[in-house]
Every structure is written in structure tokens, then in C-alpha cells.
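Q: My labmate handed me this sequence with no annotations at all. I'd like to see what the chain might look like in three dimensions before we decide whether it's worth expressing. Could you predict it?
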Amino acid sequence: MTNATSRRVTANLALTLDGRYNGPGGPADLSAIVPYAVTDVGRDHLTRLCERATTALLGRGSAEGFLGFWPSVADDENADPRDRGYAKWLVDTEKVVFSSTLTEAPWERARLVNAPAADVVTDLKAGGAGDILVNSSPSVIKALLAADLVDRLYLLICPEIVGGGQRLFDDGLPGSRWTLTRHDTGDLGEVAMVYDRAR
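A: Here is what I predict for the chain of 199 residues:
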């Protein structure tokens, strides 16, 4: 097996029942997501994301937002150990940040790219080892779904209908079939699911 086929592309996102990754208030409106992301099911799901991942792909908005939160969690001895573990992984891992406007990478161990996501992923798959995780970055996930380059989806479904906001699965995506390989249900009705692309 060659490196070009051994690196999986995985993607992580939390969605409401009506398929939104934010509410009608815009990108910062995560009121229907956050209560479920901090449950045991949500935190265990977060831990699984990075078990095999060695590269994180981030859109500019996610990279800047994460920078304002996760590094301090990595150093917080009172934080949930699962949050600390994820935060340390995110700080320490290789990060690729997609941006056409930034002139300097916002994180250590990060590099900026201004190129189509499909091209960047194809290059990453040609070398190295470990999963390539598109980390809560909808614009990048959408581009890779359109190119049929996502091998695994980690979805946290939050039991709320928000009635507005941005959707992950836009019309016009190519048809594809997925196999449910794991699902965990929490006390609040949140469901953490792992889907693998059936090829």
C-alpha cells in the first residue's frame, strides 16, 4: 500500500436536527451546539477525532477562533482531561490553514495555504502518515465533499431545530453512500456518529 492511499481524510462537525452548524444569528451563534458538545458523549467524540490524526486542516475562521480558546485549555489543570488532551493535540499537531487574506500563520506549527482544498489534500495524501482531520471547518469540508475526498465523517447531532443558519450538506453535492461504524447517544438526546465512505 502506498502513502497516497493510506492516509484517510476525516472531517468533524456538530449539526442541529435541521442540518445547521450555526444558528440564525450567524457564525458565532452556536447556542444550539455548545450544550451538547460539553456532554460526556460530546467530549468522548472529540477525543476520538484525534486518535489517529497527525494533520489538522482549518479554515481561517476556525483557526482564529480556536486560537482564542484551545491553547489556554491545554494549560488549564482544572479543565476536563478530555478537553485538555484534545487541546494539547491541536496545539502540537501540524496545522494547515486555508486563507486568502492572512499573511502570517495564526498558530505555531501551522502553515498558510491559498489553494483549492482538493489539491492540498491530494498533496498531503502523497506523503506522511496518519489521518488528515478537517477540524470543524465547514467551508473546507464542503469543498472536499464536493470532490468526494472525505473518507470518514464524525458528526455530533444536537436535538434542536434552529430554523436558520448555514447548512453542511448543500444541494449539488455528488451522490455518495456511507456506512455507520459507531454511534453513541447521550442523556440530552445528542448523538455522536461516525460514518465511513463506502467506496
